[in-house]
Amino acid sequence: MTSLNQLFTHQRTGNHSVVSASRTDFQRDFDRIIFSSAFRRLQNKTQVFPLPGSVFVHNRLTHSLEVSSVGRSLGSLAGEFITGNFSGDLNENSKTFYQHNLSNVIAAACLCHDVGNPAFGHSGEDAIASYFEKNEKDLKQKFNEKEWADLINFEGNANAIRVLTHQQKGKDVGGTQLTFTTLASIAKYPCEAIARKKGFVNRKKFGFFQNEKETFQEMAKSTGILEENNEPLIYKRHPFVWLVEAADDICYNIIDMEDAHRLGIVSTSDCENLFFDLIKSENQNTDRVEEKLKFITNSNERISYLRAKVINALINQSLHLFKSNFNEILDGTLNEALLDIYRKENPTLQEIERFSIKKIYNHKAVIEIENAGYNVMYELLNHFIPTVLKSKDKQKSYDKMALKLLPEQFVYNEGKDYEKVLGVLDFVSGMTDNYATDLYRKIKGIDIGMTM
Asked: Which part of the chain is the HD/PDEase domain (predicted)?
């Protein structure tokens, strides 16, 4: 079990020293993410429903902001719990951190937890992974086993670590230069791709590409992450991950319902009943809620009010589970997400999940955007990857023209084939929905003509 005093560090990528300033290092993390281009691009990346539309729904950026808000609350409450119950185990620096800065760490981690997700949601991830699977015959021999595992299992969580830490060509070392503490807090699956294994919460997917393996190891050492296995490399989760994951799970479970209601996919009565039942199951004062609803006649406002009460209830329940499983969280033996534990106990949360799968995630508009996004991303990769893997003497004129579309910071001519491909993935996965669609239409000849 790692000491509570070892779970955080001021060290950041790029080996920058601690700066004495009006903001703490962890507040600076939050601000750096806010002003980063990777975060800004989330405003035009699909959360669930197609963008844009006549009705405003959540995109990846608004989702991340709301997750960050929930995460700050969870971090603050967890900090109070740790300082209140483990004061004798904490040095003075740690007491200050848990009292005043754990909330900043969780908020910053929540803010950037999705920056590695490509355009078009999970269908974008699927397109990237399946591109390599479908072209295995031509491509696999160009990579070693671990590199190939990275590509055929492309994962937004691992890509987030790359986006935030990788030094792009011509740019400063250390990427966004966040503290290792914030980075450790988003590492839901702290293992390499060949170690993926269902049934293990820390190995359901993978958390870093081979290119970022050394950075991840340095981060793990600095933040007290427990090593589970060396070859293949597997770590236990960092304790702060559970709070970031809970904030994300709370938001997407509930806010997708609110979006579906605004779009008319879910009726007001269905949404109200599910939300109200969840509040009731938490033994909250439902009389007060019912009294409040008497004065709110606008259907969207009624759902917004109930959504706020539901989120508050789930924050309290997540904190309760964090406390009751704290020893298992610290020693890395807990094998289930906090909200998954609660879902088993709560039939209403189970019903919201079933309802969402049936009515929301399988809605025609959602399926259409996933199909379209898959094809767009697949074809963009097909345009660039064969070209970057050709030696210069074998490149035809159309290959050279394709390469001119790749911004300089993504071109690694002198690197291994693996690095060249990662450069293309950096470019394509960083695209917004609109940019990816526009480029696809242009290279396919659907749109011809000069546009800026």
From this structure: 56-262
